[in-house]
């Protein structure tokens, strides 16, 4: 029998009438031809509808998802690359796609400098413990204050060498001129890295210290150090203000070191 297919061409804005000889469920290409090829399927009652089957860029149906076709697309290990398949690769310097290359065992081929894969050259790059550092090597380091790379240093046992901050200490020790009166024993310093205050072990009374203010014997207003007690600032928050001190008795000695 003959069935009539009326296709509305949305893109072309045309109505196309097609008479086709049908034989069961058959698919037909849009008679307008490429690049507008669409497949149609007999849905019964003399009607044709777009077929829900995958097609290639020419409008031809793709091969069924059979095991044989999947194998053809995947390829066979050790055989030639199939005409259609999935390859893993990347972009070369010209922006072109390049699939990854392997040897006959499937190992990834890597482009190394001449002789780079030789055991002797690998040993030269790694270096020998206890010997001189090779001219080319992988080393761990950091950035110095000038932005330059510096390799971490170790001692002869391989233990990481550390470098403490070297600082000249200033002796700011003093004796109380007038008992009960605050006196300055150290000026402020915004570059201060260390501050040590002590009430001598031989003292018989409390010493009072203030940083950035006035020292007082009034309880709760200054740092209060009993005989032998110390107050140390280092490595963290270092107060930079001037240091004042006092004690009840005139002539009371105070120990102070700063850097």
Task: Describe, in plain words, how this protein is organized in 3D.
The chain is mostly beta strands. Among the domains are: 49 residues, no CATH class; 89 residues, Sandwich (Jelly Rolls). It is built from 2 helices and 18 strands. The strands form 6 sheets. Strands 10, 11, 13, 16 and 18 form a 5-stranded antiparallel beta sheet that branches. The protein is elongated, with a radius of gyration of 44 Å. The N terminus is likely disordered.
What does the largest sheet look like? 5 strands, antiparallel
What is the CATH topology assignment of the domain at 170-258?
A: Jelly Rolls
Determine and state the CATH class of the domain at 170-258. Mainly Beta
Q: What percent strand?
A: 25-35%
Report mean pLDDT, rounded to a whole number. Answer: 75
Question: How widely separated are the two ends?
Answer: 108 Å
Give the low-pLDDT segments. 1-30, 32-37
- Could you state the oligomeric state of the chains shown? single chain
Would you report the number of β strands?
18
Succession of helices and strands: EEEEEHEEHEEEEEEEEEEE
- The CATH architecture name of the domain at 170-258 reads Sandwich
The structural class is mainly beta
What is the overall shape? elongated
Q: Please count the helical segments.
A: 2
Radius of gyration: 44 Å
Which bin fits the share of residues in helices? under 10%
Topology:
Layout: E1 2-9, E2 14-21, E3 27-29, E4 39-44, E5 47-50, H1 67-74, E6 89-91, E7 97-99, H2 119-126, E8 141-143, E9 149-151, E10 170-171, E11 174-175, E12 183-186, E13 194-198, E14 207-211, E15 223-225, E16 230-234, E17 243-247, E18 253-258
Antiparallel strand pairs: 1-2, 3-4, 4-5, 6-7, 8-9, 10-18, 11-18, 12-17, 13-16, 13-18, 14-15, 14-17
